[in-house]
Amino acid sequence: MGAPLRKLSGDPDCKNGTCPTLWGTADGKEYVVQGYVINDPERLAQLDLPEGETAVMVPAAVLEEYFRAHR
């Protein structure tokens, strides 16, 4: 099992508690992004993801909140 996760920032417009979120490992070595599954074949083709990787979309506000707090 990896290092425990801690919530770093979330979607400020979230109403149900399970919205896009930025998580970090307690040791600060990794990040996890929770977001919306990308199903658009054109976008997936642009990413050219190798097997075992995936991508998600998150509102800009999720990352902006984190970076604003850590300047």
From TrEMBL:
Protein name: Uncharacterized protein
UniProt organism field: Streptomyces kebangsaanensis
